[in-house]
Amino acid sequence: MMDKVGIVSYGGYVPHYRIEAGAIGAVWGIDGTARGKSLGIIRKSVPSPDEDVITISVEAARKAMRCCNTDPEDIGAVYVGSESHPYAVKPSATIVAEAIGAAPRMTAADLEFACKAGTAGIQICMGLVASDMIKYGMAIGADTSQGAPGDALEYSASAGGAAFLIGKKNLMAEINTTLSFTTDTPDFWRREGQLYPRHGGRFTGTPAYFKHINSCAQMLFEKMGTKPEDYAHAIFHQPNGKFPLRVGKAMGFSDGQLEHGLLTPVIGNTYSGAVPLALTNVLDHSEPGDRIFVISYGSGAGSDGFDITVTNRIKKLRKKGWKPLSEMVNDYQLLDYATYAKFRGKIRMGGIA
Amino acid sequence: MPEARFWRENQARYNMIGHKCGKCQKVYFPPRDMCPKCRRASMGKMEKIQLTGKGSVVSHTTVHEGLPEFQMQIPYTMAIIELEEGARITGQIVDCNGECVKIGSEVETVFRKLGEEGKSGIIHYGYKFKLIE
Ligand SMILES: [Zn+2]
Fold it and tell me: Which of A246, A247, A339, A334 shows the shortest CA–CA distance to A15?
């Protein structure tokens, strides 16, 4: 029988600053709080001018490394999934690998699949670990996404990321299975050189998000022979605060099962970081034996599903340098729109190249 | 070429790797090939040491008029930090507006962008500090 592959350690990172929906709406002459409410978003995270996908990934990966005994030189692969890599050409993953001490005897690459590039990284690491090509792999999903000023996405697009150390030994959570559902769907895109993404109106809801998540979830239930009540927690991609609740409840999950896997209302949509961050928060709130149901979604489009069981080892992890994500979620500083615009480079500066 | 200079120092700057003098045990960061105190006696005795990145604030100042490339971050706080291992270094304190930093404040390193060579040039990364709650 093949050894189980799973999560050895994990870490999430959310920037310190936030802006509230009300402060965004005020600038455009609309009731932002009400707009936020309709999206299920109270506030969203804002990265500092000196933060990007690379710094967020490094912080998340270091957090994961701090609460396990894995030698960073045993990490054979680092994958960073994002749609906001700082360089168009030059991988984020090489810098992250160097910064966690994993380089140079390893492989690294950047992944892109809208909001599911992070979970795609977990699947790739699982394959490499299962086939014994590598001992450990670090899979990271992170983004610092932007919405055009005044666009609906401006209320949600935020920043954050999470890292998972995937291996076979010392698992704090076993990944029982993973599978995916993928089609060619033009619901959301950004062309090379364009600052802000575009969404294909009628494609964004039913034929995209709901269709892929539902199909992937059905496949996962069928393969595992499970029902919603078999799981302690369920996590769905969360472009806003409403979609994940709607899709989860329609499947039969309760508020309690969805509670810890929903962060978008208080940090916004972290894109490739969304499901990974939600998973770190759920693991923070898990007990040994808890089963977790996870479905990510990336526009373009596809969903990755995971069935995960938490092991006894989670207790060990918590004794060693572990800090819950809630510390970062609950400790924040609010910005006004002007400072937010300055931080996000929405103001054109003179005299700077 | 600044890219090459930065690149050579990356490993030390990313991961807080210093040098310790094998003779007098003094720790240096960034790493030095020779201990200025022991001079010749330290040659070949400087050992790599992984620093914890933790330390305390010795002095600090809030910058209101900085270099154009740091304009987006004004006002920002710079501090001299004494690391646990004894070495003193200068660094920016992030995620605070200056008022929260005091002499003796405990800090730890975070990984941030240090600067970039214009809009099309290389981006430099390294350590800054944040307060430990
Ligand atoms: Zn010496």
Answer: A334
Residue in A67, A68, A85, A115 annotated catalytic: A115
Question: Which fold would CATH assign to domain A6-173+315-352?
Answer: Peroxisomal Thiolase; Chain A, domain 1 (3.40.47)
Close Cβ partners of A228 (under 8 Å, ≥ 6 residues apart): A234, A251, A252, A253, A254, A257, A293
Asked if A71 and A65 touch (Cβ cutoff 8 Å), the reply is no
- Residue A309: beta bridge partners? A174, A291
B52-131: CATH number: 2.40.50.840
Q: Where residue A1 falls among pLDDT bands split at 50, 70, 90?
A: very low
User: Residue A195 pLDDT more than 80?
Assistant: no
CA distance B92 to B73: 11
Intervals of CATH 3.40.47.10 along chain A:
6-173+315-352, 175-311
Q: Would you say A64 and A165 are in contact if contact means Cβ atoms under 8 Å apart? A: yes
**Cβ contact (<8 Å) for B71 and A16?**
no
Interface touch A99/B15, C-beta < 8 Å: yes
| A98·B69 Cβ contact <8 A | no
Classify residue A100 as exposed, middle or buried by CB count within 10 Å of its CB (0-12, 13-18, 19+). buried
B71 in contact with A at a CB cutoff of 8 Å? Answer: yes
The whole-angstrom distance between B68's CA and the closest CA on chain A is: 7
Task: Extract the tokens encoding A43.
Answer: 């506030």
Express each pLDDT in B41-79 by its tens digit: 999 999 999 999 999 999 999 988 877 777 778 888 999
- Decide: residue B29, CB within 10 A, 0-12 exposed, 13-18 middle, 19+ buried: buried
| Domain extents in chain B | 52-131
Please enumerate residues of A whose Cβ is less than 8 A from a Cβ of B: 16-17, 48-52, 54-55, 58-59, 62, 86-87, 95, 98-99, 101, 327, 331, 333, 342-343, 345, 349, 351-353
Closest C-alpha to A57, from A136, A134, A117: A117
Closest residue to A343, CB basis, from B72, B123, B133:
B72
Fold classified for A175-311: Peroxisomal Thiolase; Chain A, domain 1 (3.40.47)
Q: Is A83 a catalytic residue?
A: yes
Q: For chain A, give the mean pLDDT.
A: 93
pLDDT surpasses 50 at A353? no
Strand order in the sheet with B46-50: B27-28, B17-21, B46-50
> What's the pLDDT at B6?
64
Q: Which residues pair with A189 in a beta bridge?
A: A198
Catalytic residue flag (residue A237):
yes
